[in-house]
Design brief:
Elements (H helix, E strand, L loop, with lengths): L15 E5 L3 H6 L5 H21 L4 E8 L7 H24 L2 E6 L7 H14 L5 E9 L1 H18 L9 H5 L12 E4 L18 E4 L9 H12 L9
Parallel strand pairs: 1-2, 1-5, 2-4, 3-4, 5-6
Helix pairs in contact: 2-3, 3-4
Amino acid sequence: MTSSSPSPASTPSPTHVAIIMDGNGRWAKGRGWTRLKGHEEGAESVRSALDSACAHGIKYLTLYAFSVENWKRPEDEVHGLMKLLMRFLKRYKKDLHKRKIRLRIMGRKSDLSEDVRTALTKMEDETAHYTDHTLIIALSYGGRTEIANAARTLAEQVKAGTLASEAIDEDALSGTMYLPDVPDPDLIIRTSGEERLSNFLLWQCAYSEFYFTPVLWPDFREKEFTAAIEAYKQRGRRYGGI
C-alpha cells in the first residue's frame, strides 16, 4: 500500500520567497542591445515581483541583486548597476512607504560606495518600523562569505570568553548571519534556465523548495511569479519527516 500524496491545499503560500534574478545579459544580447539595457528592463521585473509578492501575501521577498563575484564584471557595467539601484530607490520610495514595505540590505555594505551606502541606510532607517512586508536586497552578497563571517564572529566570542565552544550549535551560527531574524526562504526561484544556487543563501536553503524556469528575468512578470507560487503549493514539505 502506498502513501497518498499531500493535497495541494496542504501547503500554504510561502512566507519567504527568494529570487536569483538571472538572464538580463542574454535577454539584451538576443535583441542586439547592451547588457545595461537588459539590467534596466530587469529593474521593471523587480517592481513586478514586489507587486506580485504583496498580492500573494508574501511577507519576505529577497532579491539576489549583486554577488561578491560580480565585482569582477566590467567597470562600466558595475557602475551602471549601482546607478540603477539609486534610481530604483528614488523612484519607488513613496511606493514602499505607501505599502508599508520595509527595505533591508544583506551583504557586505562596506564594499559599496559611500553615496550608495548612505542612500540605502537612509531608506532602511525610514522603513524600519514597517511590518507588513519586507524587501531584502542582497548586495555584494555571497553565501560562503556570510558563513565564514558568522564562524569568525563565534570564534572571536570564544576567544573573548563570552561564549563556550560547546555552546556553538546551529542556532548559534544562524544567530550570527546577516539577518538572523528573517526566516529561511520557503521557495527559491531562479530564472533563465540555470539550475544552481550561485553562492546564494547556502546556509538558509537547507529545506527550501526550488523552482527553475527558462524565462529570462526581464520577462519574469506577474504570470510567471504566480506559476511559481502555484507550483510550490502543490508540494508536500516534510523537513526530513514522513
